[in-house]
């Protein structure tokens, strides 16, 4: 049974997810950020001035969860939330900018650490195949 499961992409996706979550949690510990908050920081870092509604839609999140997370990030000093007209716009504080750089870099550092057993060509092939599989899945939904 174990052998059958290990022959699925799903098995490896979950293994990579667990490893990436643990690695990221360790890297973000110095900021006091959790793994889940990382995605909010990255989104606002890449889309300064976005609204919570835009972020909720683009990240495919529950509205309440997004609102609670934004409020926590504002209270913890990572994010700004300023009313402009009828909506709020989000930005990063200097602490949020530092966290953003670390959050962004953690993806590349994890890849470098975990794909070091592959040649550069193999890494490129793997990424290309994964991108192709992700595109195929999006097109079929």
From TrEMBL:
Please give one Gene Ontology molecular function term for this protein: DNA-binding transcription factor activity
Q: Which residues form the HTH marR-type domain?
A: 26-123
User: Which branch of life, at top level?
Assistant: Bacteria
What keywords is this UniProt entry annotated with? Answer: DNA-binding, Transcription, Transcription regulation
Name the chain's protein.
Answer: HTH marR-type domain-containing protein
Q: Which organism was this protein described from?
A: Faecalibacterium duncaniae (strain DSM 17677 / JCM 31915 / A2-165)
What are the top taxonomic ranks of the organism?
Bacteria, Bacillati, Bacillota, Clostridia, Eubacteriales
